Amino acid sequence: MDYLAKLESQSLYILREAFNKFERLAMLWSIGKDSTALVWLARKAFFGHVPFPLVHVDTTYKMPAMLEFRDRLVKEWKLDLIVGRNEAVLRSGLTYPKGMANRLACCGTLKKDALKQVLERHHFTGVIVGVRRDEEPTRAKERYFSPRDQNMEWNVEDQPPELWDQFKTDFEPGTHIRVHPLLHWTELNVWEYIEREQLPVMPLYFANGQGERYRSLGCAPCTRPVKSNARTVREIIEELRHTRTPERSGRAQDQESEDAFEKLRRDGYM
Known about the structure:
Blueprint: H1 3-21, E1 25-28, H2 33-45, E2 54-57, H3 64-76, E3 81-84, H4 87-92, H5 103-122, E4 126-128, E5 145-148, E6 176-179, H6 187-197, E7 212-213, E8 226-227, H7 233-240, H8 258-266
Parallel strand pairs: 1-2, 1-4, 2-3, 4-6
Antiparallel strand pairs: 5-6, 7-8
Helix pairs in contact: 1-2, 6-7
C-alpha cells in the first residue's frame, strides 16, 4: 500500500473499532476539510452509510458558505445531522461578536457548552472528532481513544498508553470518550487524500481575486484568510510542501497563550 492507503486503513480500523465498542456514538462535523474527509472515511468504513448522527455545533457566526456546503452534503450523502446551539447564551448576547465576552470565553460557551448540551440531550457517550496531532500543541497530547470524565473534562496527565496499535477501549462507566481517527494525519495528507478521492471542499479554501484564501475555517469574526495564490487542490498541495506558516495562523483564538487554549481543551473544547 502507498502511504495514503496506510493512513486510510488505520483510520477505517479506528472507526470500526469505535463503532464496535461504544453504543452511543456521534461524529462532530465542523464542515471543514478534515471533518468532511472524516465523514467520507466513515462512509467507506460502513459501505456508503454513516451509522451514527453527525453533530454540527452552530455558533450562528459561521460564514454563510459553510452552512450552504453543510446542507448540500447532508442531502447528497444522506446524513443524519443534529445541529446544536447554546440558545441561552445567544439570547443573552454574552458573546465576543457582541462585545460581551473575550474569544476564549465565547468559544467555551458557544462550542464546548453547546456540545455538552447535545451529548446530554441525546445520551451520547462518545464522539468522533477530526483533530490531528500536527494542528497545534495541545492536540498533540491526545490519544486515539481519549477518555473524559462525566463533565467532559480532560486529564491530560492521565492518558492511556497506545503502543503498537493496541488501543484501550474499556473504560469505567460514565466515562465520555473522544475518538480521533485522523490523529496520525497531517494537513498535507488531508489535501492529498482530497485530491485522490476527489472530495468536495468549500471554495473558501481556494485563493480569491485578492490573493487570499482560508486554511482553517471557524467563526467569521475570529477567522481571517492567509496570503495565497493557490486556486486548485494541486496548487494547495504544492504550497503546503514549502510554506512555514502555521495552519491555524488565521484563527484568532489560537493566538491566545498556549496555557489558556489548553485549559479550554481540558474543560471539554474540541
